[in-house]
Amino acid sequence: MSSEIPPTMRAWQYSQTTGGLEQNLVLKDDVPVPTLSPRLGDKELLIEVLSASINPSDYKIAELPLNLGRALVRTPATPAWDFCGRVVKTTNVVDNFRVGQIVFGRQAPTQQGACGQYIVASANACASLPSVVQVDEAASLPCAGLTAYQTIAPNVKPGDKVFLNGGSGGVGSFGIQIAKALGCHVTVSCSAAKAEQCKALGADDIIDYTAVDVCQALKERGQAFKLCVDNVGLPAELYKAGDDYLLPDGKFVQVGGPVSLAALSSTMSRLLRPSFLGGGKRKFQLYTLMGDQHQDLAILGQMVAEGKVKPAIEHAYEFEDVPTAFRDLRKGKTHGKLVIHVSDKDA
Fold first, then answer.
1. Which of 179, 180, 156 is nearest to 246 (CA)?
2. What is the C-alpha separation between 110 and 48, in angstroms, rounded?
3. Is residue 66 classed as helix, strand or coil in its secondary structure?
């Protein structure tokens, strides 16, 4: 099924990233609208994007050294992979979405991202928009919300203590709320300037990383935590210190970190170095997007609908201001999600 679809669209594109992705973005009016897969059995949706949200991974992947970014995403490319939009066409085998339905979801790294008016997304990575959830809220959910949910929900039970390293960013702000909704006690690291924000989201305990040594502060709390989610990648000793603050059956999940050879070396050390050679003793997981994204997105949407999770949106940009949005994102000082209005929600 389909509705009327134009042959071309407006989209922000880049062909190189020298000097930063945002310095190379160009708004084009004649980009071909992407097409659905012709392969039988592929469950895909062609979606008119209403709102998109951006994440550090959008520019970090594009800017990978040694042309790795181009190997993952062909150029010219359109950034942003989180979206909320209107289904305008489906492949024949899609039976859980219909033309005209509003959905939200996450694309895999792709050449034709959500800073364009139309995208193709897997039906398995989309969910229906609950009637009481706003389009901008839904657009802000997929990457950060899925990351927070998938790193926390499988690893805790009510009453567990959780430490989130980096509580004020996109993943951290969702993580606080999800952990609280699951009945956990939540400790986070953040600066003093963002402490009240984290407390307002539900954090029980704050560690000001600008004033104290995070590892030492955790050790002083004893072997009390069932889970540590590292959204920052620093300090490098955080995993090894887990021997003193994680329960014997506790788990360390690494999500974020700087993009550098030193950071890669630190991650590989955490992952591969055995405890008898100085590595940590607790279970370590390097997070990657996993499992049934459709089901997890539906759960997140319901959490928002029920008021258990409130997306923290710092700013919504108009479509013409996409480079500004990426410049603001790169500064790393945002208190929540950055959303971009792509198409008219009432059209």
1. 156
2. 16
3. coil
- Separation between Cα atoms, residue 48 and residue 344, nearest integer Å: 10
Q: Give the pLDDT confidence of 283-308 residue by residue, as tens digits.
A: 999 998 766 799 999 999 999 999 99
Give ∠ CA 323-111-67 in degrees, rounded to 5. Answer: 85
Report the predicted TM-score, pTM, of the whole model to 2 decimal places. 0.89
Residue 132 CB-density burial (10 A; 0-12 exposed, 13-18 middle, 19+ buried): exposed
Nearest to 36 by CA among 124, 119, 138, 149: 119
Q: How far apart are CA 236 and CA 209, in angstroms?
A: 13
Q: Please tell me whether residue 17 adopts helix, strand or coil conformation.
A: coil
DSSP assignment of 142-206: HHHHHHHHHHHGGG--TT-EEEEE--SSHHHHHHHHHHHHTT-EEEEEE-GGGHHHHHHHT-SEE
Cβ within 8 Å of residue 314, ≥6 positions away:
334, 335, 336, 337, 338
Separation CA 171–CA 178 (nearest Å)? 10
Residue 276 and residue 261: Cα distance in Å, rounded? 25
Task: Judge whether 137 and 300 are in contact, CB under 8 Å.
Answer: no
pLDDT band at residue 82 using 50, 70 and 90 as cut-offs: very high
Tokens found for residue 242: 């887990």
Can you read off the two tokens belonging to residue 237?
Answer: 């000793």
CA 81, distance to chain mean position in Å, is: 9
Task: Give the pLDDT confidence of 225-240 residue by residue, as tens digits.
Answer: 999 999 998 898 999 9
